[in-house]
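fyi for ur records
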Amino acid sequence: MVGVSYVFLLKITLIRALNNEMKSNQLFMLNQRFRFTNILFPPFFLVSLIVNIYISYESKINCIQRVILMKIWILHNTTYGNGKKVAETLGDVLGKKNDVKIEHIKNVSPEEVVKDAPDAIIVGAFIRAFMLSGASKRWVRNLKSSLKKSNKAIKYGATFLTHAMPDNMASGWGKRFNKTLQRGNVITNVYPEWLSGRVAKPEGPLSEGVLETITAKGADLIEWMK
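which gave:
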C-alpha cells in the first residue's frame, strides 16, 4: 500500500515538476521523505532514481541560467567597418557572461529589438562632415517610440561614436547623442559617458589604442550594470 501510494505521489510530483510547478529543492525533500521505501520496496528504487536525475538536470539548467546574466544588443551604423569593430570589441568583453547580439541598424528594426526584451542596449553612430549620422538618431527615436507603445523599458543604455576629430571636439555630439537615448525615460539608466572610436581618417583605420580603450570601457560598463 505504501509502495502504491509512493508511485502515485511520484507520478503527480513529476507532472508538476515538468510543468514548473515544483522546484528541485521541493523534489529533493519529498524524495528524502519517502526514501525508506527504496529499502522496503526495491523496485521503487528506479522511480526514485528518475526523480534524482531530474533534480540534477534542473540544477544544471538553473546554473547555466545564472551564468547568463543579461541580454544585450549592440547596434552600429558602420560604413567602412570601423563602427562594427568597436561593436565587436564591446561584444567580446560583454559577451563573456552575457547574451550579446550585434547588428547593423539597417538589418534589425527597433520593433524586433523591443520584442526580444533586452536588459541593455548600446547604439553607435558616426560623425561625418561635422554632422551626426541621421540614421542612428532616427533608429533611437523609433526604438523609444516602440518601447512606449509596448509599455516596456530597457534597463541600461550606452552610446559610442566613430569620428576623425580629437575627442574634446567630438564631445558635443557625443553628449547630444547620449541625451537622445535618455529622453523619454524608456531607457532607465544611460551610461554617463559616450564611448569614443576615433579613426585616423573617415574610412579608417581606428586610431592606435582605441580598441584597448573600448575594451576597458566595456569592463567599466559591466561594473556599472551590476
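The mean pLDDT is 83. thats all i got for now
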